[in-house]
Amino acid sequence: MKNINRLFKKGLALLPLSMVLLLSGCNSELAVLDPKGPVAQTQKDLILYSVYFMLFIVVVVFAAFTYMVVKYRENRPGRKETDYDPHMHGNNKIEVIWTVIPFIIVIALSIPTVDTLFQLEKPPEVEANEEEQEPLVIHATTADWKWFFSYPEENIETVNYLHIPTDRPIEFKLSSADAMTALWIPRLGGQKYNMAGMMNTHYLEADEEGVYKGRNSNFNGEGFTKQTFEVYAESPEEYDQWVSETQDQAPELTQERYDELLAPGLTEEHEFSSTHLAWVNHGNPEGMDYAINRHFEKYGELMHLESHQDAEDFMDEENNDDHESDRDH
């Protein structure tokens, strides 16, 4: 028994150190706690509020538990047999306390959560010293296992990467050509679902220049882990220059070429000087079966990725890269 107590005390002594090492090791990987935009910052604040609030509850509960165990232990000094009443059937005071306190906890967590959810359904609010801008509309369409980003105002389209200007809200129009997916850019904000035949709206914004990872966060088959993309957040001037170069230099996206890209499998990054929205919008009921009607037999096959070995090798290299490459799009 003494050995068990000794080991237990050593474990308690090492617990704080273990927690520090665990948290310090995870900090570099937790992109959601390294926000680069107002939406991600709002969500981080809510996460930390909830975590700290619940940690406070844990501390109070364990402190009360320890107090009860020590104070009312069987072998405490001065304990009398009459102190224990086995026929006590209730205590109204205690029952009111343990009913009211959880009710207060739920309210304290619910109010900021609901308030934040309503905030995220609107474009991020501009600061007092900033000029309000109309959101940049980007249609984010998924197909097994790739991303299409259509810019209707600029009439350009990219595959598996996108450029956005900093300090301007981005209004993503989310849809899917086949399986249900979810767009997630951890450093810019949380995820939201892409579905065929309907369209979701997702507001994000970057307030720092950089290259940020994005991915599909909803499992959709064998290519799920490689359905990633990169977000290039740059100054408005650099963004306008990229738009002009893409409009002038990129080839037009034909319906035949788009149908080829829709086929299940992986592909590299592409850019085009027109969009697929000219003939199909997968966010409408009319466009929900577009990909299925053209590639029905391929959705029943296994190992689509075998026929895209070059693209798979390309994606492997990208995943091993430190994302500080100076590729020019």
From TrEMBL:
Occurrences of domain Cytochrome oxidase subunit II transmembrane region profile (ranges): 24-124
GO cellular component: plasma membrane
Keyword line: Cell membrane, Electron transport, Membrane, Oxidoreductase, Respiratory chain, Signal, Transmembrane, Transmembrane helix, Transport
Keyword Secreted attributed: no
Transport among keywords: yes
Single GO biological process annotation from the record: ATP synthesis coupled electron transport
GO molecular function, a single term: oxidoreductase activity, acting on diphenols and related substances as donors, oxygen as acceptor
Protein topology in the membrane: Multi-pass membrane protein
Span of domain Cytochrome oxidase subunit II copper A binding: 133-245
Enzyme class: oxidoreductase
Transmembrane intervals: 47-70, 96-114
Record EC number: 1.10.3.-
Localization, UniProt: Cell membrane
Protein task: Catalyzes quinol oxidation with the concomitant reduction of oxygen to water. Subunit II transfers the electrons from a quinol to the binuclear center of the catalytic subunit I.
Family: Belongs to the cytochrome c oxidase subunit 2 family.
PANTHER family xrefs: CYTOCHROME BO(3) UBIQUINOL OXIDASE SUBUNIT 2, CYTOCHROME C OXIDASE, SUBUNIT II
Protein name, as recorded: Quinol oxidase subunit 2
Organism: Halobacillus alkaliphilus
